[in-house]
Write a structure and sequence with these properties.
525 residues, mainly beta, 25-stranded mixed beta sheet, elongated
Length: 525
């Protein structure tokens, strides 16, 4: 009897020890990970709580913080990580997870040139490693109910001085499985103060296809400014991007990606290196018919710019547009001058098409600072429509009309070709353009201001490689010069006298200049 009691006592002690070990195992594991984190992963790690649920076969970790290499700043953290395992599928060699939940994750990615703050966490390549050539069976797995709640990612590029923040990041993936025919994924997060991003993805595992529906709302484009400075003299690029895109791809052919949808940028503002707003528009919209990266085709529907403004400043060194594009041409000249060692290979030609380009109520402000006093002029209420633009289009019509400094009008139509650049047709009219606005030029060149005058012009042009028909009808009304100025830059030629001699009895200067011939003939001028 005593022997039986002793046996039960030993079993009781053994059971108590097992229960005690299981009870304290989570605390022991947590303490071990925290104490040896630098040896295990090379970084300091702290954990608030860790719990093992043996009944559900689940693990819960709370308040984890992984520090930067300086052991002070936080690299990554989360409030809760929960995983619920399903061990009953292990006998059939299948790994199953019933739930994964990550709450309030935070991560900060810092880039300094080619270095990242997570480089030390990446395993180093083993030059002595031998490739495993044994044939392994397909991994069987099932993961259900994957959730990411209220995440935040901060990306900081030190060299570009650029920081991008994604917050309120939520992800929901109901099921992912090795034999699942279709998987669905939903992600939404915020970028900037009010930007929103929503991603809905469907993966067809049978046909190895996928579709991603990407929607953005009021995403500030300013963070890309730093990456544009290699190509443009830009100080600030601002605007809010809203888009609704469909991306279709093939998992067997990575480059086979097709993009369609529509997008718009509101409150667009481009500030150049001289702190001048060179381009702006309340709203620019574009529809994407088919952009295919495999065939290198870029197909657009309608591109429309509402009330765009362009500033053109002419200085003695160069115009502001030339200065704005200077980094691009500098880089292009450097790359073309570099020795080409690679053997040229055949590549897929780039094709493009744009159904319509439309400008509504645009403004082109022109300023010339090369004269003795500034010249300013505006092409306002500019409306333009271009249709059928492509790399192979032979007839591209363009219709335009604009006011000339609010006191005249320019209108016309042109048809040109991308196949033959010598093929061109154009009709244009200038009605009552006020010549007094051009006084800074007449003062500079002939030392006389224009007191009044109206310019009218009719242009007709039909041109090909073998035919040129050009009509030019000019009429200047009521041209009057003021008193001679003291501009020392003026040329000593009797321009005023010549213009007065050209006037008829009605105070008009009118003449026609027709031009006709064959541009391909050597003697054609």
């Amino acid at each position: 009897m005593a022997r039986v009691k002793k046996r039960y006592f030993v079993l009781g002690i053994f059971a108590f020890l097992i229960v005690a070990i299981l009870f304290f195992l989570s605390t022991i594991t947590k303490d071990y990970l925290v104490k040896n984190s630098e040896k295990l992963i090379g970084r300091k790690l702290t954990i608030g709580e860790m719990h093992f649920n043996y009944a559900k076969v689940a693990v819960q970790v709370k308040d984890l913080v992984l520090f930067e290499a300086n052991q002070t700043d936080s690299f990554a953290s989360f409030n809760e990580f929960y995983i619920n395992l399903n061990p009953w599928t292990l006998p059939s060699s299948e790994y199953s997870v019933s739930e994964i939940r990550l709450v309030n994750p935070r991560i900060q990615v810092i880039q300094d040139g080619e270095k990242f703050n997570f480089d030390s966490l990446m395993p180093k390549e083993d030059s002595l490693a031998v490739e495993d050539t044994t044939r392994n069976e397909a991994l069987k797995f099932t993961i259900e109910n994957i959730q990411l709640v209220n995440g935040k990612v901060v990306y900081n590029d030190l060299q570009k001085k650029n920081q991008v923040e994604m917050k309120n990041l939520n992800l929901n993936l109901p099921l992912i499985s090795w034999n699942n025919e279709q998987s669905n994924l939903g992600v939404d997060f915020m970028m900037g103060e009010k930007g929103k991003v929503n991603i809905q993805a469907t993966v067809d595992n049978v046909n190895k296809k996928y579709q991603i529906d990407l929607a953005t709302q009021d995403i500030q484009i300013q963070p890309i400014t730093g990456y544009m400075t290699d190509y443009f003299d830009v100080k600030s690029l601002n605007g809010l991007l809203t888009s609704n895109l469909k991306i279709v791809g093939d998992m067997n052919e990575v480059i086979n990606i097709s993009v369609s949808g529509k997008g718009s940028i509101t409150e667009l503002s481009v500030i150049d290196g001289q702190s001048e707003e060179i381009i702006s528009s309340p709203k620019i919209t574009a529809s994407l018919k088919d952009i295919n990266l495999k065939t290198f085709h870029f197909g657009f529907g309608k591109i429309e710019a509402n009330e765009p403004k362009i500033l053109i400043e002419i200085a003695k060194e160069m115009t502001n547009l030339e200065r704005f594009l200077l980094p691009y041409f500098r880089n292009d000249s450097i790359s073309s001058a570099a020795p080409q060692t690679a053997t040229p290979t055949e590549s897929t030609p780039v094709t493009y098409s744009i159904d319509t380009i439309q400008v509504n109520n645009g403004l082109v402000a022109i300023s010339d600072k090369t004269l003795n006093r500034p010249f300013t002029y505006e092409l306002n209420d500019l409306n333009m429509t271009m249709t059928g633009l492509s790399e192979s289009a032979d007839q591209i019509p363009v219709v335009f009309i604009t006011k000339l400094n609010n006191r005249g009008e320019l209108s016309g139509k042109t048809v040109w070709s991308m196949v033959d650049m010598m093929k061109l047709e154009m009709e244009a009219k200038v009605k009552r353009m006020d010549l007094m606005s051009f006084s800074p030029y007449t003062e500079y060149y002939v030392a006389s201001p224009i007191k009044q005058g109206w310019f009218n012009y009719e242009l007709g042009l039909k041109m090909s490689t073998t035919l040129l028909k050009n009509t030019n009808k000019v009429k200047v009304e009521e041209l009057e010069f003021g008193k001679r100025t003291k501009d020392t830059s003026a040329m000593k030629v009797p321009v005023r006298l010549g213009l007065y001699l050209m006037k008829d009895a009605n105070d008009l200067i009118a003449f026609d200049i027709p031009v006709e011939g064959n541009p391909s003939e050597p003697k054609f001028k």
